[in-house]
Amino acid sequence: MEMSYYPGCSLKASSEIYDSHCKKVLAAIGITLHELDDWNCCGATAASKMDDFAAVAMPARNLGIADAAEYAELVIPCSACYSRMLVARKTLESDAGLLEVINGELSRKVTGRTKILSIVEAIQAASGDLGKATVRKLEGLKAACYYGCMQTRFPIGVKVQENVENPRGMETVLAALGATALDWSYKTDCCGASAAVNDNRTSLRLMSMILNDAIARQADCLVTTCPMCQLNLDAYQEKVMAEYSIDRSLPVYFLTELIGVAIGLAPEELGINRHFVNATALLRDLKLYE
Hints:
The chain is an alpha/beta fold. It folds into two domains: 2-121, Up-down Bundle (Glutathione S-transferase Yfyf (Class Pi), Chain A, domain 2); 136-285, Rossmann fold, CATH 3.40.50. The chain is 46% helix and 10% strand. The chain contains 15 helices and eight strands. The chain has helices spanning 16-28, 47-50, 52-68, 79-94, 96-103, 119-125, 127-133, 169-176, 195-198, 200-216, 227-235, 237-243, 255-262, 267-270, 281-285; strands at residues 2-5, 32-35, 73-76, 115-118, 142-146, 180-181, 221-224, 252-254. Helix 1 (16-28) packs across helix 13 and helix 3 (52-68) packs across helix 4.
């Protein structure tokens, strides 16, 4: 199975390990990723807040590149990028005039032929190969799957596979790997996103609510697919614990990291040893890492 791949800016900078294990893990379950040629930033943080035209035009250029490629699906691991691409496509589908203006400046036109997939949807599409590739069950792992606020919620009426209030894709994947995915109340709440930089106090408060509820549900880790969510909850967790008197930390895994462990990749190969919160100790305790 071959798919186009849009990493986005985060996966080439602060979350470079995510880019690496997305490629390794998906290759191991039968998906070859072809990174879009000459892709650009989707404008998720700045353009979407400051300039309505740029907020559509920037992802539209990437959509045109994907539509001109020979692959039927485009995989987007970053939740923010996934959201901006879907919103841009929906906007262009409903505004023929805007589509004409933007396509008039593009060498590779937006046609809408390519299906946009989140990383969870891509993994689910290869569920049969995932089962065959699994060499180690994640038994004993109790995970709180954290989707964040951008994976299923959009500013316009975009249709997605998941239930927007109670998505279950990650839970389904983890259950197939032998882990226990817990029911909890904060799976689609916001972690503060980029407010961690310009409104740190608000972001810390939001993260404390997420962490407290996961701990109350007896989770031993958080699992996400969003690079911003992973970075915030991992890098700021020590500060959140000190600020809100939380006495227990939780490792914050990417879903692809846990799949990597299940298919036999070493934590060092996946970059799990590079997390801010110790993420290898739990794996050792559960005898998932030697």
